[in-house]
Design brief:
The complex is a heterodimer of chains A (389) and B (477). Chain A starts with a helix and ends with a strand. Chain A is α/β, with parallel strands linked by helices and 389 residues long. In chain A, 44% of the residues are buried. In chain A, the strands form three sheets. In chain A, strands 2-1-3-6 form a four-stranded mixed sheet, with helices on both faces. A four-stranded mixed sheet of chain A has the order 7-10-9-8, sandwiched between helices. Chain A folds into two domains: 93 residues, Thiolase/Chalcone synthase (Peroxisomal Thiolase, Chain A, domain 1, 3-Layer(aba) Sandwich); 238 residues, Peroxisomal Thiolase, Chain A, domain 1 (3-Layer(aba) Sandwich). Chain B has 477 residues and is an alpha/beta fold. Chain B folds into three domains: 30 residues, no CATH class; 188 residues, Rossmann fold, CATH 3.40.50.720; 230 residues, NAD(P)-binding Rossmann-like Domain (Rossmann fold, 3-Layer(aba) Sandwich). In chain B, the strands form two sheets. A seven-stranded parallel sheet of chain B has the order 3-2-1-4-5-6-7, sandwiched between helices. In chain B, β9, α9 and β10 form a beta-alpha-beta unit. In chain B, α3 crosses α7, α8 crosses α16 and α10 runs parallel beside α11. The relative contact order of chain B is 0.12. Classes of the chains: A alpha/beta (389), B alpha/beta (477). The interface between A and B is medium-sized, with 17 and 13 residues.
Chain lengths: 389, 477
Amino acid sequence: MLERTNLSQQDIDAIVWGGVILPSTAPNVGREIALDLGLPASVEGMTVTRACASGLQSITTAVAAIERGDADVIIAGGSDSTSNAEVSLPSKAVHLLAPFAFGKASPSDVMGVLSQLMPLGDILPKMPKIAERTTGEVMGESAEKMAVRNEISRLAQDELALRSHERAAAAIESGRFDDEVVAVETPTGALVSADTIVRADTSIERLGKLKPVFAKDGTLTAGNSSTLTDGAASVLLMEEQKAKALGYTPLAAFKSWSYVGVDPTDQLLIGPALAMPRALERAGLDLADIDLVDMHEAFAAQVLSVLKVLGSESFAQHRLGRDTAVGEIDPARLNVHGGSIAIGHPFGATGARMVTTMANELHRGDKETALLGICAAGGLGAAAVLERV
Amino acid sequence: MSDFLLELGQNHRARALIKGLGLPIPMPQDLARASEGFIARPLEGHEVAFGHGDASPLSEVIAKTLAEAGAHVGVVHDCPSRGIFETQAEAWSRPQWELTLNPDGPKLDSIVFDASALDTTESLRNLYDFFHPLMRRLKKCGRVVILATAPDAKQAPLMRATQAALLGFIKSVAKEVGKKGSTANIIYVEGNASAHLEGPLRFLLSRRSVFVSGQPIVVRAPKGRKLPEWDWSRPLDGKVALVTGAARGIGAATSSLLASAGATVICLDRPADDGLLSKVAREVGGMPLPVDITTPEAPQAIADFVAEHRDGLDIIVHNAGVTRDKTLARMKPEWWDQAVDINLGAVERITSKLLEGTLRDHGRIICLSSVAGIAGNLGQTNYAASKSGILGYVRGLAPVVARRGITVNAIAPGFIETRLTAAIPVVIREAGRRLSNLGQGGQPRDVGDAITFLSTPAAHGITGTTLRVCGGALIGA
């Protein structure tokens, strides 16, 4: 981004970065980025974490700092690399092996290890599993329950997944993503410039053959759930006047945002259904005023659950305290270039990716406003309203 | 002190053997008690069957209560209230299911019936038609709740008769379902009090009312100002409670429950029990107050203590009590005096003092009575008189303090497994346990749960009444 924008390093005040699975040796990723890039030492950095909404959180944190006058120019974004996630040893194994790793092992330490080898499960590293701490459920299990409670069919989920793939594939094919994707070099030296998980050739039939993964008679499959990928995304933020003074053309501005919490034991991923109306209200807009909606697709079932309750008058009356339903969202203006199901979900990067795509979309087309919605672990919901500048 | 039959009943082989041999030994069901703290949705995932007579004036509030509490409600296909339940089901993403009135359908956690519009002898047939096919579908530790109309002078005698008939029905149902650990209760709602039905309905359907069975609860529209909103998972947030006799048994269990509901608890007991009392207070994060409630200075000392540590008091639980049992002919005068003074005199003196500026508006006063106070008991003329006096006291005090939003109620425990009942000779103790519908004694926390419920804002519509926590005991019923 620095290359593409030709930004003077002296103008950067800070980096605000979002991440979920943070490296334990360098948890403040934001600052590490500044140092790795060789930016001036004065470019301070911080790292925020709000589960899958971390990427949006880093951006709204930066926007708030600029609005407050704390900073003029901030780079904000997020990244995650689940393939590099650290695998932790059970503390029993750490204690047993410590004499070997950190000091001199005595014969009795050796005996100690031998005598406590069984059961092996106690000392072997555990398969990393992203389970909700309060409920013990992995997210797909919670989403599976939401599919049942909101009566979301397998077919509807597969249709949404297919649309996500078709639109992402079309965007890649047409070159729409060229401006917002950076090629990455693999360890073998090859340059990769497109995601390989986008399936241009998938179909309802092929998606329909996949087995449910989170429940025996469930409806959630690998095809209609997002993939945990590695990725990063960032945006450049500054006030409109500042941008113009530096010779930039602003793409979009933040009109409002909202973060909410819901009971994770109820419907873990329904948060956007509360956050999106609240962000709209803060922006002084109705859903009808919104040209584009971008929702993080953790699971097709979760997106469809949120869409369903947003369209419910009863939900609006009893849960939001408003007279009428928030409204139906026309599929034509929802996730116009696909979403996390097709593109993948590197936790901390997703929010920044969505802001990037929507800002570009607003700038390119004749669209004025975009609404973002993200669900996150812990029963969190996030939303933001962007407008064209 | 442990209940041998209850433990035996939990052993599958012993249970099968006794059933197989046809031995006439009762096998009480281990009661499913709430295991966690207070939660927003105590009925999460519960399958609830709902029905009503020709009309259901209470279906709006029932639908809302059940959906918000997490229940999954089924109504019959042509139920006139179906739309009301569908609306709530949609708002809370809990799809409606269709109830069929046959004995073979899916099992039910609870059966709820709105009988408040029944007003003729013939209309009672609705009870039979709805309950008859569903009785075998009720799960173990299930719940039956009927909603009825509270009596008032303007009702026609036939209406009164019909509504009174519901009590006999529910008490009998309670006896029929009791051996499976299930309870059946009835809520009589005054015409304009439906807004206050939510708390009692949640309580009776939850796992915090395991030892309340065959009982009526009367809900009336309260006088006084509207209550501020509260959080179901912490209903006593910011409240200050006083519990007398808090060192052990029901008092200790109540202190712990009030604290887990969010209250700061002042734990009071005799100075002689200081060690135990301090331990309880420490465990519940409360404050110990060693005071002998029989002394003339006690009321002032309590008021001073509250003034020193907090701005005021919200909940008073008069739990301290003694028995001094002897038949009247053999009873010493001091035994009479002690029982009557501690159980009734001190309650009145302390309450009167604390009503002079210590107890805040929307306060709660809960006095421990006893089934003995309702039924009388051999060798307990003194105790029964004092506990019966409590019943009159709450009836008399309730209207006096109603304007301030303060409620006053009595709790009448039946056979509860405490130090008091452990001292009863074994044969009588066994008989005492089996006299309840549930075939067992209650635990101190069962009484504590009922006290805590009456302490919450959600019990605003209940005042001047006595709630029995007796498992539907035969005595005094």
